[in-house]
Amino acid sequence: MAATGLAAMARPAFAQGDLLPSWNDGPTKRAILDFIARTTQAGGRDWVPVPERIACFDNDGTLWTEQPVYFQIAFAFDRVKALAPRHPEWRTQEPFRSILADDRATLATLGEKGFLEVMAATHTGLTTEAFGKAVLDWLATARHPRFNRPYTDLVYQPMLELLALLRAHQFKTYIVSGGGIEFMRPWTERVYGIPPEQVVGSSGVTRYELRPDGTPVLVKDPKVMFIDDGPGKAVGINQFIGRRPVFAFGNSDGDQQMLEWTAAGSGARFMGLVHHTDGVREYAYDRPSLVGQLDKAWNEALRRGWTIVDMKNDWKVIYPFELK
Amino acid sequence: MAATGLAAMARPAFAQGDLLPSWNDGPTKRAILDFIARTTQAGGRDWVPVPERIACFDNDGTLWTEQPVYFQIAFAFDRVKALAPRHPEWRTQEPFRSILADDRATLATLGEKGFLEVMAATHTGLTTEAFGKAVLDWLATARHPRFNRPYTDLVYQPMLELLALLRAHQFKTYIVSGGGIEFMRPWTERVYGIPPEQVVGSSGVTRYELRPDGTPVLVKDPKVMFIDDGPGKAVGINQFIGRRPVFAFGNSDGDQQMLEWTAAGSGARFMGLVHHTDGVREYAYDRPSLVGQLDKAWNEALRRGWTIVDMKNDWKVIYPFELK
Ligand SMILES: [Ca+2]
Ligand SMILES: [Ca+2]
């Protein structure tokens, strides 16, 4: 009955029929539709007032693919290659040597510290505007090594449908990602319908400067401002949004605290995890994995009855281009 | 003609007549109405797409009174007094001694460092929830020393009308304040119609903790995360909103960079300053002033033709309670 109510309400935006057409029928899809129906049905016991309808999504591995490496790492490595002629010292200096030599064995051991070093070296001194342009230029030309397509083609069609369905029910959709805020904002509105002010992410310090002609710019410093991962996701949600979400979706241990923080509010709650189970159409990985490890958060989800998406069985298609 | 178009469009929200009834006619009011008309008239040369309609307002001295001291300082001092029985050492230790003794001469020299010390001592260890409750409890009982009213009564009626008019024209209204983000968010939605996720401000570090029963909390640490003042306002706008505003209003030198940052975008722009000229109905101050000094930003506004509100002459009433 709740689902019938939802279908009726959603009709203007989702003309008759399936509200999540790329999701197979089953408990996962039912849990999502049921939550949206219950929380948006006026007068219902689980009704959530519109201003409280905050839905937070992790990005890497939840809204788009994150293999064989986080796409932002691919971007940073490509910047190292582009800037290498100006930095002859990089030919012998790690981690730049390994990047330039495509030495994957060494790169796999890079870790967060090494990656931050690469970001600092390749992003420092750019204005925020120049950085945004560099991101868009890269996305326009770079291709994913396996699918040979622009990285922004590798977003998940079922999640695009879910984002749109939530917005049609007056949920405000946010990204809450460990990725760089300035790496995401230039394209999230076009690709996900999520405007820059609804993107929470990791960020570096920027410095306000007046150029000689009086034009103000913000220049990227090497210093890290905030890491939006793990416990940082709850901190970031509080810092940027200032409200507790009622709906949150992630895919890895870095999302555990975001889901805990969401679950700890009162009233109806939805906590979801994407489990990468499809090695044929995408990638299959959970524990252990260097990228997007799902281990502790999986245990907690099983224990607490959170929704777990089985990509292989729950999703009819993975990417939008499969529909064409 | 533009103003006619605006009146017609605004009719649903502002039934016939004056769109800013508490503003006297004159160049200031005309500049505001003209800007809104030009930027929202479909097909016009200065039309701004809805997603780009970002309007940023400073809070202290721009949306509410900031004399005789910033209201957040009054809050922190009241907390020192409330917590004093648990801290006998404060009777001799500065700056607490001066606060407990109401030693205004010493307090006037406190400066940002001293104030941060008071905040750290009185806020550290509270959860974000407990802190928000402390703010609301204080607002419910504290009274302004001159007006003998709750501090939230001392918001500017003309600015409430401006906020509502902007929103009626699909501008997203933000607060961008040097004040504490957690001090503002509990009440800005009720008082200004600005939801917590549209409040940018200074903030401290918070720490994610699981309580013994498994409940997650965010605990306030003494460390400063970000000071949203001066150049920090441009940084904060970029960090939290990720779009450049087209409209910004401040009242002091701490707003200069926010206005410069707003002015440096392309297309139509509005930069405004509230000049406190009414010592009878409110307070009169500019340069020099310990609170809300308006000096360099005033010079720049005069030089660049930014709009300057003369409170005494531009505003029919200052506070909402004058209407009753
Ligand atoms: Ca992820
Ligand atoms: Ca101010």
Describe this structure in words.
The structure is a homodimer of 324-residue chains. Chain A has 324 residues and is an alpha/beta fold. Chain A has two domains: 2-68 and 152-323, Rossmann fold (3-Layer(aba) Sandwich), CATH 3.40.50.1000; 71-141, no CATH class. Chain A is built from 13 helices and eight strands. In chain A, strands 1, 2, 3, 4, 5, 6, 7 and 8 form an eight-stranded mixed sheet that branches. In chain A, helix 3 crosses helix 6. The longest helix of chain A has 14 residues, at 27-40. The interface between A and B is large, with 36 and 36 residues. One calcium ion binds next to loops of chain B. Residues 58, 60-62, 251-252, 254, 292 of chain B line the site of one calcium ion.
Record the SSE blueprint.
The structure is a homodimer of 324-residue chains.
Chain A: H1 2-10, H2 27-40, E1 54-57, H3 71-83, H4 96-100, H5 104-107, H6 111-123, H7 128-141, H8 157-168, E2 172-180, H9 181-192, E3 199-210, E4 216-226, H10 231-241, E5 247-250, H11 256-263, E6 270-277, E7 284-285, H12 296-304, E8 307-310, H13 311-314
Parallel strand pairs in A: 1-2, 1-5, 2-3, 5-6, 6-8
Antiparallel strand pairs in A: 3-4, 6-7
Helix pairs in contact in A: 1-2, 3-6, 7-9, 10-11
The complex binds calcium ion (CA) (2 copies).
